[in-house]
Design brief:
By secondary structure, the protein is an alpha+beta fold. It is built from 14 helices and 23 strands. The strands form five sheets. The protein has an eight-stranded mixed β-sheet with strand order 5-4-8-2-1-12-15-14. The radius of gyration is 23 Å and the shape is globular.
């Protein structure tokens, strides 16, 4: 029996057409399409983009029985499945095809055999011309003039996007023996030479803190369309997809700054979330919602650390870092939901109402409130340790103890490690800001002062708060 699922893909207009050969089965079996994707902790309901789903037996197409929104039953003796997927959304987590681009995030559109998730994949891009360029973290080779990629199992393929185009900009660099690749579709990266230099700088800085990198290689896949409005980034196992457009935004000072912030954020995810991962997502269960209260670690710590490492690496100066923190604090202070629902409960509820603002004042943001909490924890650890240790010290311990062996992280383990590093418990920060809804202003002022900064705020006639940082 073959240990591979062999998939052929063709495109037509804005659609992808799949044909997959699964191992033979002498009994009823089931196929599953994921209903959510890593990096977006809400239901994605990708089956809404499926345009057809049939089995093939003796040359005849057989309509498959649907068991739920994302699962189908396959009759005994049927091993070939054909399906169509409508691919006309371009963001960092979607799947999109047009004349000069095939961008696929497999978790949107790839099927797997229920109960046999260890099966590997062999994927042939049947109509991608041989003179196009393929960018992906998946291993591949040319077979009969076609790109053929391999994935070791279901978890691997679902976290390994690719993009193919007749023209992709590329640069490579190496840090501590790790090969990094930077790919760009559409626009050439702004200030290309500095763009790569800054990537090298923040890569070196992050690896220096963690000590090791989780893989031998890493790919930055940039979607920089000239004609589409987008800003988005998504982390993957050994790569990231970052989308920004249109062209005038990409080439602006704002665009460059955004790309750097997203890139540093996503690279930090290679450790935090892809390996240091909440136990509820270890491994990913794509059949249902998988709520966790640890979004403040997954996204909050990463948001804070991403910009901090740009500063640590010299990619931005103190003024730029302060500007980023002012934007963050503005979002924090002007969201009354932070005083109504804790960031832990807000994390749990991303699966209820997604990433939309939702009912005004109902909940907080795992990115914003989580980053504020990470900053407060970092300052506390530095203060009580006399600047000898920091939140980065704790994250390195978490990488060594949980990330390397992919042991699911719990809230208790996280706060225990922070206490170990600090030399005292940080239970007040946990109770007040992770699982409580205390106003953070006084602690923020004190933490900023510890860093030699003065935090002020003004409130206009509409009640909008504007924070301002300056040197003491």
């Amino acid at each position: 029996m073959s240990s591979l699922i062999k998939v052929s893909i063709n495109s037509s207009g804005s659609s992808l057409n799949f044909e997959a050969q699964f191992p033979d089965s002498n009994s009823l079996w089931e196929i599953q399409l994921p209903c959510w994707r890593p990096g977006r902790y809400e239901l994605g309901n990708f089956a809404q983009y499926i345009t057809s789903m049939v089995g093939v037996q003796d040359g005849q197409e057989i309509r498959l029985k649907k068991l739920d929104h994302h699962r189908w039953q396959v009759p005994a003796g049927v091993s070939t499945i054909k399906w169509g997927f409508h691919a006309d959304i371009l963001n960092a987590g979607s799947t999109f095809v047009r004349e000069d681009l095939q961008y696929v995030n497999p978790v949107n559109c790839m099927l797997y055999k229920v109960g046999d998730e260890g099966l590997g994949y062999e994927i042939c891009l049947c109509d991608v011309p041989a003179d196009w360029t393929l960018a992906t973290a998946l291993p591949y080779e040319m077979v009969g003039g076609n790109f053929v990629m391999q994935a070791r199992d279901m978890q691997h393929i679902m976290d390994s996007p690719w993009m193919a185009s007749p023209e992709l900009w590329h640069a490579g660099y190496e840090v501590e023996g790790v090969e990094f690749h930077v790919w760009s579709y559409g626009c050439k990266p702004p200030r290309a030479e500095k763009f790569v230099e800054d990537h090298i700088a923040f890569s070196k800085s992050q690896i220096a803190y963690f000590g090791t990198f989780p893989a031998d290689f890493y790919h930055f896949l940039y979607l920089l369309p000239k004609d589409i409005e987008v800003r988005h980034g998504v982390e993957h196992e050994d790569s990231t997809v970052i989308a920004l457009g249109p062209e005038d935004k990409v080439n602006s000072d704002y665009g460059y700054d955004e790309l750097m912030s997203i890139a540093s954020h996503e690279l930090y995810h290679a450790w935090n979330v892809k390996r240091i991962r909440p136990s509820e997502w270890m491994p990913y269960n794509f059949t249902k919602a998988c709520p966790s209260k640890l979004g403040y670690i997954a996204e909050g710590v990463t948001t804070y650390m991403g910009d901090l490492f740009l500063f640590e690496a010299g990619c931005i100066d103190l003024e730029n870092w302060c500007g980023k923190i002012e934007v963050l604090l503005s979002r924090h202070l002007n969201n009354p939901g932070r005083l109504n629902m804790s960031v832990a409960d807000s994390s749990f509820d991303t699966w209820l109402d997604g990433y939309r603002p939702g009912v005004p004042g109902r909940k907080g943001s795992i990115y914003v409130e989580g980053a504020v909490l990470a900053f407060l924890c970092d300052c506390r650890i530095m203060k009580v340790s006399g600047h000898e240790k920091s939140l980065s010290t704790a994250m390195t311990l978490l990488w060594d103890r949980f990330g390397k062996d992919r042991i699911g992280l719990t809230s208790e383990a996280y706060w225990d490690v922070l206490a170990e590093v600090a030399g005292e418990r940080l239970d007040d920060l946990r109770d007040d800001y992770a699982y409580g809804v205390k106003d953070s202003w006084d602690d923020l002022v004190e933490a900023m002062a510890f860093n030699g900064l003065k935090l002020n705020k003004t409130i206009d006639e509409k009640g909008v708060v504007t924070p301002k940082l300056s040197k003491l």
